[in-house]
Specification:
456 residues; alpha+beta; Aminopeptidase; Alpha-Beta Plaits; four-stranded antiparallel beta sheet; 34% helix; binds ligand BES; binds manganese (II) ion
């Protein structure tokens, strides 16, 4: 790759300046109040793709947040790579735990600190720069499309329809994505599995108004206590989920595959240190990697009710709420699990409370084979820069659109992530090491090269 290192070296500062412009737009998809920011971010990307060398780029409306589409077609008979990324980000709360402003990127200890620094603005931006390099040095070997969405962090609710309505536009041979992690800075990895998701919100109602907790405490059921008991019963002492039928479709992973997984260089001590815990926990009989890679999970993501402001108020709440997510593994269907969960949750409610459960969002998981051209091309690209073969591994996170792409468009994705587990995505002080950022920009052009060579 002619002048690649030089291209990165000379433009390092400019890359950051541009990425920071995008990061400063607070494109939080889950909040209605940020609707305008979604368009701002989408338009910024559209203009940027043109500057980087796309023939065309456009902002397309969906029923939810807009999608940016762009392309450069050099020869219709050549392969087409479609780059996918998302410009939306997660909410930033709790704000007081941030050491710098979430939407004012700052570099400390060689890392970019900001919401979206890694997930996914920073990772997506590496693709813009790799593309610019290939175009400006006349080395683009194939056609390129970009599809950048704004609803990933809320489960891509409008994207199934969008893909169905735009099948022709989105035709491609492979989808290239950087929105996952690698095992360590010196251990490149290719994500071969993503979990699905079912996400529900529950409400438990007791008395019709908040009551004095002295006058009524002990005589009237407290919905907050009841909710806690109900939630506690959703997993058993072995760490298994008790929702009826929950495990019916769970993929049984072969002994051989589990042995393969166990060979991955996973460092439990480093893992505990990265998340600051003394002990790990999870389903009996499975390693930490297996617990996120091949087993489902159930978690409370938020829980509230009663008086939560400053100081004391003796009150027995009328209502208590929780947001509960279930991460799913291959063959578990998100809609089916959601139904099972709601039925189960209603069935365990004692007679002295009423429960309501609603769906927030969901999506299917993904497993990708390693005997494909795209896997081999990605593997060679990583090897070129890191000097070692990347390790295939199944991640615990979800990117619902990846299975949609396969279902609706019939296109497989290759997940070349450069994030690290320590990047604190979705947490305060999200960060992205500059080294990961620049290494990504250097690795991606090789994927284009090897993929096109192997595909032709
Ligand atoms: N980029 C993440 C998913 C991810 C991160 C996968 C690291 C593998 C490794 C993505 O932006 C994400 O957070 N997805 C959501 C999806 C959900 C809201 C439907 C998730 O997993 O919570
Ligand atoms: Mn992401
Ligand atoms: Mn995310």
């Amino acid at each position: 790759m002619k002048d690649l290192k030089n291209f990165i070296e000379t433009n390092k500062e400019k890359f950051l300046e541009d990425l920071f412009e995008l990061i400063r737009i607070p494109s939080i998809s889950s909040k209605e109040s940020h609707k305008d920011d979604m368009y701002k971010a989408a338009n910024w990307i559209k203009d940027y793709l043109i500057k980087d060398g796309a023939d065309m780029a456009e902002v397309l409306d969906t029923e939810g947040h807009p999608v940016v589409f762009g392309e450069k077609i050099i020869d219709p008979s050549l392969p087409t790579i479609m780059v996918y990324g998302h410009y939306d980000v997660q909410p930033v709360e709790p704000l007081d735990l941030w050491e710098s402003e979430p939407f004012e990127p700052e570099i400390r200890d060689g890392k970019i600190y900001a919401r979206g620094a890694d997930d996914d603005k920073g990772q997506m931006f590496m693709h813009f720069k790799a593309f610019e390099y290939l175009v400006k040095t006349d080395q683009l070997p194939c056609n390129v499309k970009f599809m950048i969405e704004g609803e990933e962090e809320i489960g891509s609710p409008s994207l199934e329809k969008f893909c169905n309505d735009n099948k022709k536009k989105l035709e491609a041979d492979v989808i290239l994505v950087s929105d996952t992690t690698m095992l360590a800075p010196d251990i490149p990895s290719i994500t071969t599995g993503l979990r699905g998701l079912s996400f529900c919100e529950v409400e438990v109602t007791g008395p019709n108004r908040d009551l004095h907790s002295g006058l009524f405490g002990g005589a009237i059921a407290n919905p907050a206590n009841v909710l806690c008991k109900m939630i506690a019963s959703l997993t058993d002492e072995k760490g298994r989920i008790t929702v009826k039928g929950f495990y019916d479709d769970v993929e049984v992973v072969s002994k051989e595959e589990r042995e393969d997984m166990a060979r991955a260089p996973f460092d439990l001590a480093a893992y505990k240190k990265a998340v600051d815990v003394d002990e790990v926990d999870g389903e009996d009989g499975y390693s930490s990697m297996e617990r996120v890679g091949i087993r489902p999970s159930l978690d409370v993501n938020g829980i509230w009710g009663g008086y939560t402001e400053e100081g004391a108020k003796t009150v027995l709440p009328s209502k208590a709420h929780a947001k509960i997510s279930m991460r799913l593994v291959p063959h578990q269907d998100s809609k089916k699990i959601t139904e099972l969960f709601i039925k189960h949750f209603e069935s365990i409610a004692p007679p002295y409370v009423k429960v309501k459960a609603k769906v927030l969002h969901g999506g299917e998981g993904y497993v990708s084979p390693t005997d494909t051209i795209e896997y081999q091309a990605a593997s060679k690209a990583f090897e070129e820069i890191y000097g070692v073969k990347p390790i295939p591994y199944r991640s615990g996170g979800s990117i619902p659109i990846i299975s949609l792409f396969e279902k609706v468009l019939g296109i497989k994705s290759i997940l070349m992530g450069f994030g690290l587990e320590s990047d604190a995505i979705h947490s305060p002080n999200e960060n992205y090491p500059l080294e990961q950022f620049y290494n990504g920009i250097e690795t991606i052009p090789y994927f284009y090269k090897y993929y096109t060579e192997m595909k032709k």
